[in-house]
Amino acid sequence: MADPIMYQVDGYVVLRHDHPEQLMEPDEIRTFFETLLSTQPDLLPPELTNLPSQEAQIDQLLADYCELEIEDGFLQWYAVRFKK
């Protein structure tokens, strides 16, 4: 059986083509995606558009995806643990 600590998320490393690497807390990345998807809703993968709320969409995005295709570049995020 897998150790539950393997599924613990302390934050995210966010990589963007036009920014240096960033570390974000879970609430920071949620705010980031709320802002991004409010201004560019077409970035959301089509299979997530039927979810009932933006919160549910972001939950699923963080759980099942690690990249969005954006114009002229990339946006990637990876869950990380800050402590052993």
Number of domains: 1
- Please write the CATH class name: Alpha Beta
CATH homologous superfamily heading: Protein CHLORORESPIRATORY REDUCTION 7
Order of helices and strands: EEHHEE
Strand elements, count: 4
Alpha carbon gap, first and last residue: 19 Å
Percent in helix: 25-40%
Binned strand content = 25-35%
Largest sheet: 4 strands, antiparallel
Shape: globular
Low-confidence stretches: none
Specify the number of helices: 2
Looking at the structure, the CATH topology is Eukaryotic RPB6 RNA polymerase subunit
Based on the structure given, which CATH architecture is correct? Answer: Alpha-Beta Complex
What this model shows, in words?
The structure is a single chain. This protein has 84 residues and is an alpha+beta fold. The chain has a single domain, classed as Protein CHLORORESPIRATORY REDUCTION 7 (Eukaryotic RPB6 RNA polymerase subunit, Alpha-Beta Complex), CATH 3.90.940.40. The chain has two helices and four strands, in the order E-E-H-H-E-E. It has helices at residues 26-39, 54-64, and strands at residues 11-16, 19-24, 67-70, 73-80. A four-stranded antiparallel sheet has the order 2-1-4-3. A hairpin with a 2-residue loop joins strand 1 and strand 2. The radius of gyration is 13 Å and the shape is globular. The two termini are 19 Å apart. The mean pLDDT is 90.
